[in-house]
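ok so I'm stuck.
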Amino acid sequence: MKGIVFTVFNNMIEEKFGLKTWQALLDKVQPEGGGAYTAGGTYSDAELFALVTELSRQTKIDVPTLIETFGIYMFPVLAQKYSLFVQPNMDLKDFLKSIDSVIHLEVKKLEENAELPTISYIDPAPHQLIMLYRSPRKLCHLAMGLTKGAANHFKKDLSIEHPLCMHKGEDHCRLEITFE
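replied:
not stuck anymore, here's the structure
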């Protein structure tokens, strides 16, 4: 997993829970690199999952909620870093539909070893979008958080239903988005 995920996670923990909580996580998990992450580095998925699991244990907040909260927190960081993809005059729905075919394609050009999810879309109505998410990492809750973060960025309200989930044995997650 790319280092930017770890550096943003570190920042979120310090901001929302405090430096002592971050240090307690590192002390308990004892990550291979000691918790000194760089945005350009690459780190083990297992390391992030261990940090999130331990944070859940310490805060009594369930893992899906923590991961979704992280996605909401991370979106503005990614939007600033990759501002080319997040134009002020864009429509939120069009932005979401560009993730797999434009954004992920460009990320692959920059980071050829990036392991990205695949997302396909069903566009049933002007106020709806269905995203079909597939990834061996099963980070559908991160995708939901990033989607909510995008909605915040574009100042749009939306709701997300999650009737199918890989965590419940499905081969993909179905995220049904309704734009208010």
